[in-house]
Amino acid sequence: MSQLPDRRLNAYRDDLAEARLRGVVEAPRYVEGTPATVSVSVAPLRARPDVKCGTDTELLYGETARVLDVAGGWAWIKADLDGYVGYVPEDALASSEKPATHIVAVPRTFVYHGADLRFPQAFALSMGSRLTVVGDTETRGTRYFLLDGGLAVIANHCVPAGEVLAGDYVSVATRFLETPYLWGGRSGFGIDCSGLVQLAMQMVGGNAPRDSDMQASGLGQVISREELRRGDLVFWKGHVAIMEDERTLVHANGHTMTVAREGLEDAIRRIGWLYDQPTGYRRP
């Protein structure tokens, strides 16, 4: 019997599957899905339609997905960014209409009820959130981008869609230092080890799979420990860290429960008693 495709990246259930899996898995019905956009700050994606089920990953405001099924207040989706499959609350999505024009380029920012930083905040957004800007204005020397519904965001907290941040992805990752660790998180409000790698690479125009095992098996090329330099990745079972230089790494970790710097040798010794030695090293 052939091995079934990874359910994290392939949408299939006993009753339904995505159309591209026709002939790969058996299902009574295949669907292409309908486009949708995330309409909340952060939408946790779960393996089951159950709030008690842990978060596998997160989708950020303005990111897009294909909705494969809706039932009981839950939408079964496949994310466009990385192909991840799972369930989000139906009310976390809106129909796709206007394309995003800008991306939030700071770890966190606020959306205001109008173009004035003294106005009440409507909600907060993470780096990587996608916005459709409909205008701009200036209030007391501060420039704002205007969004639908009279909302506004600080203009210099955003970059045009398609533009990448200056520097390398390591410099982006270090902007998240002291951000809380969150299992399944990939936002400025809480992030996990592989989420940090993925989001930082995304902001400089790169692509990375979502989970550490995916990154360990297919991101970049294998290198030796002796070759480690800035930007390389160190993997343990279930964990990944980013080399800031030849001796120091940056990672979202459950030890400090933050994104933190740590010496490579210190990390290897500390992690070793629980997860053994590193399983590999890669250069993206």
Give a summary of the structure in a few sentences.
It contains 4 helices and 25 strands. By secondary structure, it is mostly beta strands. The chain has a 6-stranded antiparallel sheet with strand order 20-25-21-22-23-24, with helices on both faces.
Descriptive report:
There is one protein chain. The chain has 284 residues and is mainly beta. 12% of the residues lie in helices and 37% in strands. It is built from four helices and 25 strands. The chain has a six-stranded antiparallel beta sheet, with helices on both faces. The protein has a five-stranded antiparallel beta sheet with strand order 8-7-6-3-9, with no helix packed on it. Strands 12-11-16-15-14 form a five-stranded antiparallel beta sheet, with no helix packed on it. The protein is globular and about 55 Å long. The mean pLDDT is 97.
* Beta fraction: 35-45%
C-alpha geometry: globular
Average predicted local confidence, pLDDT: 97
H/E topology pattern: EEEEEEEEEEEEEEEEEHEEHHEEEEEHE
**Poorly predicted regions:** none
Number of strands: 25
